[in-house]
Amino acid sequence: MKDKVVFITGAKGGLGMFVTQRFLAAGATVVGASRSIAREDFPDSNFVAMPVDFTKAAAVREAVESVVKRCGKLDVLVHVLGGFAGGKTIADTDDATWQQMQDLNLTSAFYVLRAAIPHLRKSGNGRIIAIGSLTAVEPNAGLGAYVTFKAALAMLVRTVALENKDAGLTANVILPGTMDTPANRKAMPKADFSKWLQPANVADLALWLADERSAQVTGALFPIDGKFLLDSCGAAGGPRKTSTGHWPTIMKAAAAVKSQSTSGPVPQRTPFYTF
Ligand SMILES: NC(=O)c1ccc[n+]([C@@H]2O[C@H](COP(=O)([O-])OP(=O)(O)OC[C@H]3O[C@@H](n4cnc5c(N)ncnc54)[C@H](OP(=O)(O)O)[C@@H]3O)[C@@H](O)[C@H]2O)c1
């Protein structure tokens, strides 16, 4: 990664911190963005802090242009930014929550992709890695606003993959399960943290998707869920026990909503798409 310029959104969050550190350790020049990010967050000479609000189209375009102006090019975009809300059925979801989930999980991605694609195409082997969610590939009662926009994010990125194959630009989505982050530990203090996905493993996958070895991988969704996926699918990849099997602790309220819903057919294993 030594000659690569990498732009990371949500760079100082629970996962973003690991992703940023991983790319810096691999020798990349990393421009890390969030609203409050500062130079001191990552004391590395290859790190550039870029404060930006990704809900503002003009600010995002300006940020991407200033990455290219400052670093001369853009090779990799890792779009980590997202936001979570849950615990309400669609019937009870208010406008503000719907709008916030759309802004953070979908529109921010549209803004940054639109601004970055022309530069990533010029790179010749550009890379886009977006962070979705394992919840985005099947319905989850009580998480409607979140999963709707995470699902749309996956389709947005797969579309970008198709549209930019000609330029050697790949675009893939990582779908993490519940991660072991400080915010999750605080929100769910009684959970078994040992079962949660380690953000460092997600960062490793993002790094692999950014390097030469993944040149032929595009338009793919990568479910990654630590011990839950293994527990519920089994080694042979059988069906999950329940559709909430991955999320026993994600939100008590969401689980309560789920338990009131009519039980349907057992959902199949999270699919792995590629083309
Ligand atoms: N945590 C999980 O268990 C889990 C599971 C599955 C998927 N995911 C996904 O993984 C990604 C990372 O999750 P996380 O838990 O690490 O998130 P997080 O800790 O909440 O971090 C979010 C980051 O986004 C930044 N941010 C928030 N609003 C912003 C805005 N309007 N403009 C610019 N930056 C903004 C925050 O920094 P500032 O406050 O400085 O802006 C922060 O750096 C998200 O896409 C999430 O949906 C998480």
The main sheet comes to: 7 strands, parallel
CATH class: Alpha Beta
Helix-strand pattern, N to C? EHEEHEHEHEHHEHH
Q: Based on the coordinates given, report the CATH architecture.
A: 3-Layer(aba) Sandwich
For the record, give the distance between the C-alpha atoms at the N and C termini, rounded to a whole number: 26 Å
Low-pLDDT stretches are: 232-275
Give the strand order, joined by hyphens, for the main sheet: 3-2-1-4-5-6-7
Shape: globular
Question: Tally the helices: what do you get?
Answer: 8
Determine the CATH superfamily: NAD(P)-binding Rossmann-like Domain
Would you summarize the structure shown here?
Helices cover 40% and strands 13% of the residues.
Task: Provide an overview of this structure.
The chain is α/β, with parallel strands linked by helices. The chain has a single domain (5-274), classed as 3-Layer(aba) Sandwich (Rossmann fold). The protein has eight helices and seven strands; from the N terminus they run βαββαβαβαβααβαα. Helix 3 links the parallel strand 4 and strand 5. The model is unreliable at 232-275 (pLDDT under 50). The structure holds NADP nicotinamide-adenine-dinucleotide phosphate (NAP).
Provide key terms for this protein.
single chain; 275 residues; alpha/beta; Rossmann fold; seven-stranded parallel beta sheet; 8 helices; disordered C terminus; binds NADP nicotinamide-adenine-dinucleotide phosphate
